[in-house]
Amino acid sequence: MRETKSIRITTEMERLGNIQKVPAPAALWGKVQLHVANQAKDVVPMHYARAIAVAVALLFVANVYLVANNTNTETQSGLEEFIPQTEYSFYE
Amino acid sequence: MTFEQSYTNYKDLVYNLALQYLQNTADAEEITQDVFLSVYQNLNQFEGKATLKTWIYRITINKSLDFIKAKSRNKRSFFFTSKRLDDPDTPIIVSHFDHPGILMEQEEEMSKIFACINALPERQKTALILMKIENKTQQETATIMKSTVKSVESLYQRAKKNLKEKLALNEGK
Q1: Residues B72-122: pLDDT tens digits?
Q2: How many structural domains does chain B have?
Q3: Are the Cβ atoms of A32 and B167 closer than 8 angstroms?
Q4: Stretch B127-133: mean pLDDT
Q5: Could you give the CA distance from residue B19 to residue B25 in angstroms, rounded to a whole number?
Q6: Is residue B131 very low, low, confident or very high in pLDDT (cuts 50, 70, 90)?
Q7: Does B72 touch chain A (CB under 8 A)?
Q8: Residue B20: what pLDDT?
Q9: Three-state DSSP state, B84
């Protein structure tokens, strides 16, 4: 009984080696091409990405330049000064 | 090699390998499409034919295993369970058994064998599929699995032992 079971299992294992190879469906090439085309549509072209990167970098540089200049003007003109308050009486 | 040439050369390899993992034509077609999208995106990185073939084997295996995991995850989240995939009690969810490489009269028997193969740990399953079904040598299997011949041999022996146990358990039921 046990031997029969073992032989059966061995046969089942051998069957794995007899699985036939099948050709891929012919329609699959069309689907693959469509898949590739759809993916390519979603990807931002490299020159777009480069242009955006340059624009962001320019904005950053301009921002840094403006901030730096602004700070210099304020310190030179002395617009912000500390004025000591000596009068503390209100509503007289 | 152009994309079209690589598709012509390897389409059957990818489709059949995906079939051994998923046992469903629709799922195998989906994997084939995904694999060739990756081939399209990475083709310029491969100069030698051998490296491309090995890489195609690896990517097909990884995508098939990920597909099974994703399917099991979806099914589990539906039932609000938190079982782990390597839990031996977790049933492996496969779509309707539809393997065109198997003769009609053997379909019932083979679906039971594949149910047991699907319950094996991933690396044992891969070693068994590559060596027993795809007829790869130990060296080829080791290269595909980024492993050593010794380790592949050990994986294969364990896979065979586990499969026999699972089949015997099924017979007893």
Answers
A1: 777 665 555 444 444 554 445 456 888 898 888 888 888 989 999 999 999
A2: 1
A3: no
A4: 95
A5: 7
A6: very high
A7: no
A8: 95
A9: coil
Does the distance separating the beta carbons of B37 and A39 come in below 8 Å? yes
Q: Say if B46 falls within a structural domain.
A: yes
| Residues of chain B found within 8 Å of residue A24, distances taken between Cβ atoms | 11-12, 14-16, 32
Q: Do A15 and B110 touch (CB under 8 A)?
A: yes
User: Do the Cβ atoms of B99 and A19 come within 8 Å?
Assistant: yes
- Residue B53: Cβ within 10 Å count: 18
What CATH number corresponds to the domain at position B23? Answer: 1.10.1740.10
Asked if the interface predicted TM-score (ipTM) of this complex is over 0.85, the answer is no
Are B15 and A28 in contact (CB < 8 Å)?
Answer: yes
pLDDT digits (tens, 9 = 90+) for B29-70: 999 999 999 999 888 887 666 688 999 999 999 999 999 999
> Which residue, chain included where needed, has tokens 């993916």?
A39
Per-position b or e across B126-157, b if 16+ CB within 10 A of its CB: bbbbbbbbbebebebbbbbbebeeeebbebbe
Residue ranges covered by each domain of chain A? 44-76
- Backbone torsions φ then ψ of B24, nearest 5 degrees: -150, 125
Domain-located, residue B49:
yes
A26: which chain B residues are within 8 Å (Cβ-Cβ)?
none
Residues of A in contact with B163 (CB under 8 A): 13
Residue B104 lies in a domain: no
